[in-house]
């Protein structure tokens, strides 16, 4: 198997080593009883690029996201965001520091409208009101309208999330993450199950956000997406980071391909 | 007959306040509490105590009762809401049990098992509400106020945060929401408004005892919310009206053995809950229509 992609522009990955490191993961370990879900994983996520996590099912990709975002407490190791440790911080504090995520099983606010799903992400104040008064409220509403337009959900603004079609739900996940002010997006299989039209729109959307300075780490099984958008690829298997490098190095490695397709 | 209907409407209104405030946390925040009768009781006993020892003024007795209920709920919510939902149910059940013992034993405040008798009529700007229709107006105004407050809250950013937590706690956390603060605030608000119902009940009945604030009352109010429809404004009111009218309606059915009315009532409650769970899980008033927002 050759995972090489002719559409991939290798020049995009050249300045990677010079990018600022946003997130550092060092010697991370996660044990669930006797199961070692993550073992001694160290990697960096650098600003302004797309890093893709690949690996077979059960490799520990989502577990890694859960540990970075505070949903799971690592057994050992360190997670640093712009030099500060994230360990022990609750997920909402980590989110407010600039790390947003989506979930593989979407976790939409199902009984709220599409518009409310987006708006509530912008309303992080826990009290009975939001700071900023009417001008901030108007700004939020304008931003919601812009996100609805860009994600193709404008006509569904008043529809409950539970009543959306699957592809629309996927775009609502993207709309919600766009509503955050985060610098780093952790996307868990955001394009799985999308039809070709929606897939095209998704790639366009992601590229434009990356061009605007968003850093993305994405878990993806679809190799077409992997080769089309990745600046770096990290390969995980059975909780271990087997490789972390430029797409060409990873995608043309026959040993990794054999592991990915379950041939060894 | 008029007095009977007036009495029924006043009691329905008081229970509608209870079910509306419980629905605020069940229907919009996904927090199931079995201690609603505790805050009802705190409201009733505190209002009675203030009325008998300080002043029967509505604007003094009720706010004190609401503050005390809010503080008690804070003591329950802060530790219990840090953990998953089912633990809050267990903690609220514990509080309910503890409160019943306290209500029964703390003679200086609650009158013990015998309760508090001779609660003076409530006064509004020095005017004593002694006639039933006076009280009817007061309870209807209070019910309207509670509905307006909750209706307003659920359509604000706070209401959206509550609904997001109800639908997916982990996604709300990932969106940067401090869910402990938001859930605690919702329980405090709900409990303080529940104390308003307690105060109204104490002033209306002029006599209260622990019987009205036991686990059975918490379960009855929860049944009102579930049968009426969670997460809706009208549902809990419909539920309160139905369950309050049921005992009276059954007594008109002459073919039923009057000594067994209590048991028949329980059978009807149980059957209604089972049938609703099967055919209309959202309750009688539920937003089932495709595309309709909750």
From TrEMBL, chain A:
Keywords: ATP-binding, Nucleotide-binding, Transport. GO terms for cellular component: plasma membrane. It comes from Marinobacter salinexigens. PANTHER family: AMINO ACID ABC TRANSPORTER ATP-BINDING PROTEIN, CONSERVED COMPONENT OF ABC TRANSPORTER FOR NATURAL AMINO ACIDS-RELATED. One of its GO terms (biological process) is L-valine import across plasma membrane. Residues 23-263 form the ABC transporter domain. This is ABC transporter ATP-binding protein. SUPFAM superfamilies: P-loop containing nucleoside triphosphate hydrolases. InterPro entries: AAA+_ATPase, ABC_AA/LPS_Transport, ABC_transporter-like_ATP-bd, P-loop_NTPase. GO terms for molecular function: ATP binding; ATP hydrolysis activity; L-isoleucine transmembrane transporter activity; L-phenylalanine transmembrane transporter activity; L-valine transmembrane transporter activity. Pfam families: ABC_tran (PF00005). It comes from the Bacteria. The keyword ATP-binding applies. The keyword Amino-acid biosynthesis does not apply.
From TrEMBL, chain B:
Signal peptide: none annotated. One of its GO terms (molecular function) is branched-chain amino acid transmembrane transporter activity. The chain crosses the membrane at residues 6-26, 33-52, 58-80, 87-104, 133-154, 187-207, 213-230, 261-279. It is a multi-pass membrane protein. It comes from the Bacteria. GO terms for cellular component: plasma membrane. It is found in: Cell inner membrane. It holds the Pfam family BPD_transp_2. Keywords: Cell membrane, Membrane, Transmembrane, Transmembrane helix. CDD domains: TM_PBP1_LivM_like. InterPro entries: ABC_transp_permease, LivM-like. This is Branched-chain amino acid ABC transporter permease. It comes from Marinobacter salinexigens.
């Amino acid at each position: 198997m050759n995972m090489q992609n002719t559409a991939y522009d290798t020049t995009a990955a050249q300045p990677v080593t010079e990018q600022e490191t946003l997130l550092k993961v060092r010697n991370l370990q996660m044990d669930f009883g006797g199961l070692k879900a993550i073992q001694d994983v160290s990697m960096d996520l650098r600003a302004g690029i797309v890093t893709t996590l690949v690996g077979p099912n059960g490799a520990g990709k989502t577990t890694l996201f859960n540990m970075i975002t505070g949903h799971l407490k690592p057994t050992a190791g360190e997670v640093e965001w712009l030099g500060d440790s994230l360990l022990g911080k609750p997920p909402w504090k980590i989110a407010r520091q600039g790390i947003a995520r989506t979930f593989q099983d979407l976790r939409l606010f199902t009984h709220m409208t599409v518009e409310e799903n987006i708006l509530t992400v912008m309303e992080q104040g826990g009290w009975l009101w939001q700071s900023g008064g009417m001008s901030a409220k108007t700004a939020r509403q304008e931003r919601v309208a812009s996100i609805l337009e860009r994600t193709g959900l404008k006509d569904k603004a008043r529809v409950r999330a539970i009543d959306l079609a699957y592809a629309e739900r996927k775009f609502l996940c993207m709309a919600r993450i766009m509503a955050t002010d985060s610098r780093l997006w952790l996307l868990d299989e955001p394009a799985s199950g999308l039809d070709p039209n929606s897939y095209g729109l998704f790639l366009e959307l992601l590229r434009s956000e990356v061009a605007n300075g968003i850093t993305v780490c994405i878990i993806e099984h679809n190799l077409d997406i992997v080769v089309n958008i990745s600046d770096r690829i990290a390969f995980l298997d059975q909780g271990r980071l087997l490789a972390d490098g430029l797409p060409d190095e990873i995608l043309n490695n026959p040993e990794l391909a054999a592991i990915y397709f379950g041939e060894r | 007959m008029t007095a009977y209907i007036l009495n029924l409407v006043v009691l329905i209104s008081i229970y509608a306040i209870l079910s509306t405030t419980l629905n605020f946390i069940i229907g919009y925040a996904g927090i199931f509490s079995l201690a609603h009768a505790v805050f009802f009781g705190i409201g009733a006993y505190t209002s009675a105590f203030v009325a008998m020892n300080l002043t029967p003024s509505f604007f003094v007795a009720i706010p004190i009762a609401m503050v005390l209920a809010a503080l008690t709920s804070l003591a329950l919510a802060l530790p219990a809401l840090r953990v998953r939902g089912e633990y809050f149910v267990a903690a609220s059940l514990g509080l309910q049990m503890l409160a019943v013992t306290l209500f029964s034993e703390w003679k200086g405040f609650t009158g013990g098992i015998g309760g508090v008798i001779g609660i003076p009529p409530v006064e509004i700007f020095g005017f004593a509400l002694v006639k039933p229709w006076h009280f009817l107006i007061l309870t209807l105004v209070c019910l309207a106020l509670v509905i307006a407050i909750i209706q307003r809250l659920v359509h604000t950013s706070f209401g959206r945060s509550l609904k997001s937590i109800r639908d997916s706690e982990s996604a709300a956390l990932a969106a940067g929401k401090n869910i402990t603060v938001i859930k605690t605030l919702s329980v405090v608000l709900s409990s303080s408004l529940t104390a308003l119902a307690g105060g109204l009940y104490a002033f209306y009945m002029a006599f209260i005892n622990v019987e009205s604030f036991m686990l059975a009352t918490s379960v009855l109010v929860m049944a009102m919310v579930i049968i009426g429809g969670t997460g809706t404004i009208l549902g809990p009111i419909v539920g309160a009206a139905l369950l309050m009218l049921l005992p009276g309606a059954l007594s008109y059915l002459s073919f039923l053995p009057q000594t067994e009315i209590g048991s028949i009532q329980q059978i009807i409650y149980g059957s209604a809950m089972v049938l609703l769970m099967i055919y209309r899980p959202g309750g009688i008033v539920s937003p089932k229509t495709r595309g309709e927002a909750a």
